[in-house]
Write a structure and sequence with these properties.
Layout (H helix, E strand, L loop, with lengths): L1 E5 L7 E9 L6 E8 L10 E8 L10 E4 L8 E9 L5 E8 L5 E8 L10 E2 L7 E2 L6 E2 L5 E8 L2 E2 L5 E2 L3 E8 L7 E2 L16 E7 L5 E6 L4 E7 L10 E6 L6 E4 L5 E5 L20 E6 L10 E4 L4 E10 L4 E9 L10 E6 L23
Antiparallel strand pairs: 1-27, 2-3, 3-4, 4-5, 6-7, 7-8, 8-9, 10-12, 11-12, 12-15, 13-14, 15-16, 17-18, 18-19, 19-20, 21-22, 22-23, 23-24, 25-26, 26-27
Length: 371
């Protein structure tokens, strides 16, 4: 395995949450990520979106350049980027524009010259609200529909300026004309807030071989919750606990070129006895598992990172011919006190012949039924 860290420094306290896209030239890859500026590194402090390029398949990377600035929108920040190939060959870049605690929206810009210049932004969230998307979440379905899984927080701001952050509900925005016009799904997903303060946060979506969409979202209940759609994301089943255990940390999942599903996340013991670490959020180890049968049976988890003093999360995934390229937060308490502040790009080779584990309960509790 080889890896590259994007170090932080004075005036750049955090680099995090990125997305890859393979370009037309052989072995050329574009990577976009959130770069925070100033001295603080909270989600609501100043941040822009930068890109770097690799011309050797992700082994080495050139210097960063800013492609979207918060000042362009007079916003608090711009962050949580996804890159997607558009139907005419353009590069699409999706991201959040955080105006304040009541207004955060999703936009799309296009580039027809390899990411050098960009079109005017188009808003993808079709109504006002405070919407959150994770990095590397925007997906194109086999039907060519583009779908964005989003979490809405219906926040309130008190007269003294105190923000009351509301639990998240999950919704989906979709486009059938390559991102020019957008619509919202008809099902709003939520959980019982009496037992779950987080709600359904940071959702993701994956298209299965049988045409169903599998969706998931993080919770503070020790598990990812899951839901399905049989009509390309317009209607969804109600969320139920999945077998992916986790702290309040995201799960990421994509299909590899050989058809296997690749899932990567932070598990927790089934007894859920974990000593809280505020710097890492208990986001360690970072493990992956593979499935050859649409997610019914998974391999035993394999650790990508397991330093108990670090935290690993917000993973971007780029399947390649001979390896998988990952980018994820990999900070420690020494990195200004948060696991989010250091960004790592890692290149490694997966086993070709994986031995599938029996579909039954074990330490990580992995698996879901695709039926």
């Amino acid at each position: 395995m080889t890896y590259t860290d994007l170090p932080i420094g004075n005036g750049n306290p955090r680099n995090s949450e990125g997305s890859f896209l393979s370009l037309d030239a052989k072995d050329e890859i574009l990577f976009a990520y959130t770069a925070f500026s100033g001295q603080k590194a909270r989600d609501f402090t100043n941040a822009d979106i930068k890109t770097i390029r690799s011309r050797d398949g992700g082994v080495t990377w050139d210097s960063p350049s800013t492609v979207v600035a918060a000042d362009d929108f007079q916003a608090m920040n711009v962050m949580s980027v996804s890159l997607l190939r558009m139907e005419n060959g353009d590069i699409g870049i999706f991201y959040l524009v955080r105006m304040n605690w009541l207004d955060m929206h999703i936009v799309l810009q296009r580039s027809g010259d390899g990411g050098v210049t960009w079109s005017k932004p188009v808003r993808c969230s079709v109504r006002e609200g405070y919407f959150v998307i994770n990095n590397d979440r925007v997906t194109r379905l086999a039907s060519s529909r583009i779908i964005i899984p989003a979490a809405e927080h219906r926040n309130k701001v008190k007269e003294d300026g105190t923000v009351i952050l509301a639990p998240a509900v999950t919704t989906f925005f979709y486009s059938d004309d390559d991102g020019y016009t957008w619509f919202e799904s008809e099902t709003e997903l939520s959980v019982d807030y009496a037992s779950c303060r987080s709600g359904l946060q940071e959702p993701g979506v994956l298209e299965l071989d049988n045409g169903k969409l599998y969706g998931w979202a993080r919770t503070d209940l020790g598990r990812q919750y899951e839901f399905c759609s049989e009509d390309n994301g317009i209607h969804w089943t109600q969320p139920i606990p999945s077998r992916f255990t986790s702290p309040l940390s995201p799960l990421s999942m994509k299909r590899l070129g050989d058809g296997r599903l690749f899932a990567i996340w932070n598990p927790v013991p089934l007894n859920n006895i974990v000593k809280e670490n505020k710097a890492t959020g208990n986001r360690t180890p970072l493990v992956y598992a593979l499935s050859r049968d649409n997610g019914a049976v998974w391999t035993e988890p394999t650790a990508v990172e397991d330093d108990p003093n670090a935290g690993y999360c917000y993973t971007a995934i780029l399947p390649m011919e001979d390896c998988v390229l990952l980018a994820y937060c990999a900070g420690t308490e020494a990195d200004r006190g948060s696991c989010l502040n250091r960004l790592r790009i890692r290149r490694f080779t997966l086993p070709e012949n994986d031995l599938l584990a029996a579909d039954g309960p074990h330490f990580m509790g992995i698996g879901f039924s695709p039926s």
